[in-house]
Amino acid sequence: MSNLRAGLIGLGMMGRHHARNLRAIDGVDLVAVADAQGDPHGVAEGLPVLPDVDALLEQNLDYVVIAAPTMYHEEIGLKVAEAGVHALIEKPLAKTFEDAQRLVRAFASKGLVGAVGHIERYNPALQELRKRLEAGELGDLYQICTRRQGPFPARIADVGVIKDLASHDIDLTAWVTQRDYELVAARTMFKAGREYEDMVSATCQLSGGLMSNHLVNWLTPTKERLTIVTGEKGMFIADTLTADLTFYANGRIATTWDDIAQFRGVSEGDVTRFAIAKPEPLRTEHENFRDAILGRDSDVVTLEQGAQVVRVCEAMIESAATNQFVDVR
Length: 329
Hints:
The protein is of the alpha/beta class and 329 residues long. The protein has two domains: 4-119 and 282-300, 3-Layer(aba) Sandwich (Rossmann fold); 121-278 and 310-327, Dihydrodipicolinate Reductase, domain 2 (2-Layer Sandwich), CATH 3.30.360. Helices cover 33% and strands 29% of the residues. The chain is built from nine helices and 15 strands. Strands 14-13-12-11-7-10-9-8-15 form a nine-stranded mixed beta sheet. A six-stranded parallel beta sheet has the order 3-2-1-4-5-6, with helices on both faces. Helix 4 (97-110) links the parallel strand 5 and strand 6. Helix 3 (73-82) packs parallel to helix 4 (97-110), helix 4 packs antiparallel against helix 9 and helix 6 crosses helix 9 (303-322). Its EC number is 1.1.1.18. One of its GO terms (molecular function) is nucleotide binding. Pfam families: GFO_IDH_MocA (PF01408), GFO_IDH_MocA_C3 (PF22725). It comes from Arachnia propionica.
């Protein structure tokens, strides 16, 4: 069987990493690249740098990776779908929920595989966490908290911290817990002099009564990427910067000193850091998308899921503006 022919549009910071992985995975050939702004990172490696998606689609492609700025995702994605070509679209899926829905319909009507590049879903720590939650190792889930903080990335100009960063946490929270967002409340801040928010603190309810909290900003001088799940049997902490997963068990030894027992509540048990394989998340994402096109077992972020992420992002923005919970059921 011949290799899949892949094209890439958008040769910026993420585009260069997509190109590297497209060239590295088995069964795929990167045969064409495009960017109206040229190739600042030398991604092409001998391929001509085409000016736009129209020129890209003339190259007899099986699929396209769309790593252009968010504001162009809908326009490019609709052209790719119309041409009958599969697509992996960087997150967020589109600038608005309405745009995202149009992409969902376009790919569905053509029977094409469309996926969204929520790379955190493929972080080894979160992959392992989902397996352990699904196996019931935490028992009943009570709360999931995420903290995604760091300095402002100058490359982001067309969306705020909610759609750029919090979108990661929205997708991974729903995926790891296998729950759906129901109610969303948020507060935002604008401290960097831009038109978009650079800090958000959100409290949400997911199906089954699960509570989630998300603290995300571009105002912290050091990076933090944590996902903390608390449940009946203890707590998991996934650090996606280091791909480490640690379990803090509730204690099984009774505290006989009454004063300490009353003060502590749940007692401290064993602490376990799991030894897990740590493949590159973007490589895993590309392998899953390739397998989806080939009809193999795979786990991709579907366009429907990506659209729902955008919907929850917009609910956070709406909640901050109206001081009310927003229902996204």
